[in-house]
Write a structure and sequence with these properties.
Helices cover 73% and strands 0% of the residues. The protein contains 6 helices and no strands. It starts with 5 loop residues before the first helix and ends in an 11-residue tail after the last helix.
C-alpha cells in the first residue's frame, strides 16, 4: 500500500498555488493591457452599468490607473516575496469588480467571480503573512 509522504503533499500544494498565481497573473495581465490597447471589446448589458462606466471614463484617469495596478499586481504575483502585498492590493479591486457584475452587469460575472475566488483562495494560503499586519496594541514609543 502506498502512503503519501507529507513532503509530496506539500509539493503538490505549492505547485497548485503557483499554478493558480500564474493563472491569476495572466488574467490580470490581459485585463491590464486591455485598459490601454482595447483589444477585447467590452459590452455592458444594463443602463446602470453603462452610466457608471461612462462616469468613470469621464474622469479620464481611472481606467489607466486600474490598468497600471492590474499589471503591477500581475508582476507581484510572480515574485514570491511580493505575493502577499499583491493579494492585498487586488482584494478591493476584485471585490468591487465582483459586486459591480452581481448588481449591475451580469455579462462578465463569471470572470470577476473567478478573480475574486482565486484572490481569496490564494490569500487564505498566505494567512501567516497577514497575521503580522494585525497587532493588538500599538506602542508608538518604540
Amino acid at each position: 500500500m502506498f502512503v503519501f509522504d507529507n513532503s509530496i503533499i506539500m509539493e503538490l500544494r505549492n505547485f497548485t498555488l503557483l499554478a493558480l498565481r500564474i493563472i491569476l497573473a495572466i488574467i490580470l495581465l490581459i485585463n491590464g493591457l486591455n485598459k490601454f490597447f482595447n483589444f477585447i471589446p467590452v459590452n455592458y448589458a444594463s443602463a446602470e452599468s453603462v452610466q457608471m462606466i461612462e462616469g468613470l471614463l469621464a474622469v479620464g484617469y481611472f481606467f489607466k490607473l486600474l490598468g497600471v495596478l492590474e499589471l503591477l499586481i500581475a508582476l507581484f504575483l510572480l515574485i514570491p516575496q511580493l505575493v502577499p502585498i499583491a493579494l492585498l492590493m487586488l482584494l478591493p479591486i476584485s471585490v468591487n469588480a465582483f459586486l459591480f457584475h452581481v448588481f449591475t452587469d451580469k455579462g462578465q460575472l463569471g470572470m470577476s467571480a473567478a478573480v475574486f475566488v482565486l484572490n481569496v483562495y490564494i490569500a487564505l494560503s498566505y494567512i501567516p503573512y497577514f497575521k503580522l499586519l494585525i497587532v493588538r496594541r500599538s506602542n508608538t514609543n518604540q
